[in-house]
């Protein structure tokens, strides 16, 4: 590619970065809320709530995200009653539909992460808090949640990165994020390798920064006695030179 074409490609890709970040920024909070509700339902005493939560998590973890996007965007539009309902305001928009599909998917995976974090909370810590006379609410927010967050953060960090990369699937329903713009530029310039190498470099840069930030947060939340200690190398004394 010549300089002008390269500059135009970089300019359009730079504009698409914000669409990719907006997709991830809208998806992750919604997915987190869905995961919290599913985790609460699975821990509920009500059998129906547990069954609904298990069915939701199993269904969305067992099917590809691309299929879920297609079902929501193309499949649901076949029903006339849905097109006349208020839900169609969201489902007819590609961006909103992609956010809904990805939120449902990441919510199912995050629910498993939360369940694993809660299961990793030592029972002795909870029993000790109860023995001190703390109320169930204080035990939850002062003992259970902080420990569960620390245990679940590494797995949830991976889910955040996976969700950011999964935004590329939104291009299949005409959302012009990074991958969608790249496919459009590829058809215009026929520079397949150059364009997609630029896109790969952008994804790599974004995810590297994100991983570093999440790693710093993970280290910040880790107690001092659990942090990895820097290894010290043994110093070997130099023998005195023979006189």
From TrEMBL:
Keywords: Cell inner membrane, Cell membrane, Membrane, Transmembrane, Transmembrane helix, Transport. One of its GO terms (cellular component) is ATP-binding cassette (ABC) transporter complex. One of its GO terms (molecular function) is transmembrane transporter activity. Pfam families: BPD_transp_1. Residues 17-214 form the ABC transmembrane type-1 domain. It is a multi-pass membrane protein. The keyword Cell inner membrane applies. It comes from the Bacteria. Belongs to the binding-protein-dependent transport system permease family. HisMQ subfamily. This is Octopine transport system permease protein. It comes from Nitratireductor pacificus pht-3B.
